[in-house]
Amino acid sequence: MLEINDLCKNYGSKKAVDHLSLKIEKGEICAFIGHNGAGKTTTLKAVAGILAFEKGDIKIDGISIKDDPLTCKKKIAYIPDNPDLYDYMSGIQYLNFVADIFNISLKERQEKISRYSELFEIKNELGQLIVAYSHGMKQKLAIVSALLHDPQLLLMDEPFVGLDPMASFKLKELMKEACNKGCAIFFSTHVLDVAEKICDRVAIIKEGKLIKSGTMEEVKGDESLETAFLELE
Ligand code: ATP
Known about the structure:
Layout: E1 2-11, E2 14-24, E3 29-33, H1 40-48, E4 55-60, E5 63-64, H2 69-75, E6 76-79, H3 91-101, H4 106-119, H5 135-147, E7 153-157, H6 165-180, E8 184-188, H7 192-198, E9 201-206, E10 209-215, H8 216-220, H9 225-232
Parallel strand pairs: 3-8, 3-9, 6-7, 7-8
Antiparallel strand pairs: 1-2, 1-4, 4-5, 9-10
Adenosine-5'-triphosphate binds at residues 11, 14, 16, 34, 36-42.
């Protein structure tokens, strides 16, 4: 579902991502871990098609994001680490705006908005302007909006930061549900015990280079993911 080949992204002389290659199949959940500044956000933004890169290619379901970004973006949802939504829209206006972009029928959007906003306990706040939302509420709204078009590839940058324990639990359940339906999930996290519990695969990045990747068992062996990660440093 996702194929990254020899990705390179520089900021001036800084090599943020350095010859990174990675594959994630349909139905797999892959954690992307690494120190602060390792290159996770940069990689996720390149995959989401919102950051140009110098070298390499990224294919979503076999289609290059460079050649056909629009087709790729129809298959993707991206939840950034800091949900920067439109402050002067209400929650429901924002969700309808996203549903319009993805051409989602009235019936389908109503069902999904109702289900997911109830699940994340923001249904009663959807009439409020986003400017009045807390960080966690914005994060929940971004998650609901990302699920409206049933993405085939879900990209998330530190999705559990700022979520309350109930919302974190529900997000993990939804991630499992989505991958059971064939969605591939690629997300960055510093919460290694969560990654260990819910992921099939893990990719470890250090100073822009992928230093280890594979199934969870291949990467961590008999140790905890935390121990395996710390040993690589
Ligand atoms: P964190 O875990 O702290 O979120 P990260 O792994 O997501 O970190 P990135 O945000 O991808 O790391 O940053 C990778 C490198 O690129 C860092 O050295 C960072 O300073 C640099 N960098 C990121 N964005 C820019 C930018 N817009 N201009 C210049 N350098 C940048």
